């Protein structure tokens, strides 16, 4: 199936550092979602974005809906060990509930 | 509040056997989605329902797969007969109008077909 390009694929960071990741598409989307998935669990919804240029925060997480509507960004500030996991973006084209998911960014935090 | 509930959490079966996965959406949610996750293909939408009615089943891989939603609090995904290539993690997700684009996932069922 189709997947969105997500980068980086994986990253090791020190506790306390800020993290940035992004998702890009060749198609325009009307909604972007960001999820975090821990091993053996389902994805947990972190942030939903509905408008181009929208910037939304959820605690230490901030996500943005790209102006071109073809990309989205997630930032995590002051990372902590429990931020470890795989982060997925998901984009929704107009007129459908079928999200296209990103390939995931695996985050590892070094204490 | 209880989230999406799925059962079983793990299923191991032999090729050719029938497999039934179960899902209870979040109470009050009117959309229900079935996904499959594999390393090669990531998360793929199989089918979704709105108010218990199947809306789009274009992601169902073949006739061996079927899904039903007999009422607002229960759905099943059935594979008959199962094949080794069906091995994957199957997720159920639900959402609620008017924020129906925000999908909440269950813990998944890890299916292994030997």
Outline of the structure:
The complex is a heterodimer of chains A (about 110) and B (about 110). With about 110 residues, chain A is mainly beta.
Mean pLDDT of chain A: 94
Count of alpha/pi helices of chain A? 0
C-alpha termini separation of chain A? 36 Å
Report the oligomer.
Answer: heterodimer
How would a textbook summarize the main sheet of chain B?
7 strands, mixed
Uncertain segments of chain B are: none
What does this protein structure show overall?
The complex is a heterodimer of chains A (111) and B (114). Chain A is mainly β. Chain A has strands at 5-7, 10-14, 19-24, 31-37, 44-49, 55-58, 61-65, 71-76, 85-92, 100-101, 105-110. In chain A, a hairpin with a 6-residue loop joins strand 4 and strand 5. By secondary structure, chain B is mainly β. In chain B, strands 2, 4, 5, 6, 9, 10 and 11 form a 7-stranded mixed sheet that branches. Chain B has a 4-stranded antiparallel sheet with strand order 1-3-8-7, with no helix packed on it. The N and C termini of chain B lie far apart (37 Å). At the A-B interface, strand 4, strand 5 and strand 9 of A face strand 5 and strand 10 of B.
Topology:
The complex is a heterodimer of chains A (111) and B (114).
Chain A: E1 5-7, E2 10-14, E3 19-24, E4 31-37, E5 44-49, E6 55-58, E7 61-65, E8 71-76, E9 85-92, E10 100-101, E11 105-110
Chain B: E1 5-7, E2 10-13, E3 19-24, E4 31-38, E5 42-50, E6 53-56, E7 65-71, E8 74-79, E9 88-96, E10 99-105, E11 109-113
Parallel strand pairs in B: 2-11
Antiparallel strand pairs in B: 1-3, 3-8, 4-5, 4-9, 5-6, 7-8, 9-10, 9-11
List the main descriptive attributes of the protein structure presented here.
heterodimer, A: 111 residues, mainly beta, six-stranded mixed sheet, five-stranded antiparallel sheet, 52% strand, B: 114 residues, seven-stranded mixed sheet, four-stranded antiparallel sheet, 0% helix
């Amino acid at each position: 199936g189709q997947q969105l390009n997500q980068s980086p694929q994986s990253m090791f960071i020190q506790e306390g550092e800020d993290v940035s990741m992004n998702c890009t598409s060749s198609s325009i989307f009307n909604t972007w979602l960001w999820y975090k998935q821990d091993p053996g669990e389902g994805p947990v919804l972190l942030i939903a974005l509905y408008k181009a240029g929208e910037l939304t925060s959820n605690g230490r997480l901030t996500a943005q809906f790209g102006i071109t509507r073809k990309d989205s960004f997630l930032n995590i500030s002051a990372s902590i060990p429990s931020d470890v996991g795989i982060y997925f973006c998901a984009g929704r084209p107009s007129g459908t509930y079928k999200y296209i998911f990103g390939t995931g960014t695996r985050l590892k935090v070094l204490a | 509040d209880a989230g999406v509930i799925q059962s079983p959490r793990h299923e191991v079966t032999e090729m050719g056997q029938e497999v039934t996965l179960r899902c209870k959406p979040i109470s009050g949610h009117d959309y229900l989605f079935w996904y499959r996750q594999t390393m090669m293909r990531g998360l793929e939408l199989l089918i979704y329902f709105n108010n218990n009615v199947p809306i789009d089943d274009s992601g169902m891989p073949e006739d061996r797969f079927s899904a039903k939603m007999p009422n607002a609090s229960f759905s099943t995904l059935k594979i008959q007969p199962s094949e080794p290539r069906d091995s994957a993690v199957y997720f159920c997700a639900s959402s609620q109008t008017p924020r129906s684009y925000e999908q909440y996932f269950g813990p998944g069922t890890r299916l292994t077909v030997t």
